[in-house]
Write a structure and sequence with these properties.
Blueprint lengths: L3 E4 L5 H9 L12 H9 L3 E7 L2 E10 L4 E9 L8 H11 L6 E3 L7 H6 L20
Parallel strand pairs: 4-5
Antiparallel strand pairs: 1-2, 2-3, 3-4
Length: about 140
């Protein structure tokens, strides 16, 4: 298997949705909302992708300032390519694009929660999420 990795290589919305569907991440993303998915792809400012020839088999999609914080929003690897080191390589390549003080931040999928501690991430229980439609009150 000869996988190539690319930094900020253009991907289509259909390629992105197809990868999410072929990984476990599609279950937790609004893949049936095309407008949302188009916005997700077009507004990311760091995309590291893994390719098996013309097939997108992995992605690390981030929003970052490159200096202080990088939010790794999506890390997805096609089910047929998992456990081959692609996910780790995507994260390493993401980290290589960042400044020396930039933190890599993510919210783990429930099934992957134990994975990140094993590869060097520190657990932080201070994350807060405001769901769409929720009102900020006093």
């Amino acid at each position: 298997m000869d996988i190539s990795f690319k930094v900020n290589h253009p991907i289509t919305t259909d390629q992105f949705i197809g990868l999410l569907e072929s990984s476990t991440l599609g279950e937790r993303r609004p893949i049936h909302d095309r407008e949302c998915m188009e916005g997700v792809v077009s507004n990311s400012n760091l995309l590291i992708s893994a390719w098996d020839e013309d097939l997108l088999v992995g992605i690390a999609r981030s929003v970052t300032d490159f200096h202080y914080a990088c939010y790794l929003s999506d890390l997805a690897v096609h089910k047929g390519y998992q456990r081959s080191g692609i996910g780790k390589r995507l994260q390493s390549l993401t980290q290589e694009q960042l400044g020396p003080l930039c933190k890599l931040i993510l919210i783990a999928a429930p099934a992957a929660n134990s994975y990140y501690g094993q590869i060097g991430y520190t657990h932080n229980d201070r994350c807060w999420v405001l769901d769409p439609g929720a009102t900020i009150g006093n």
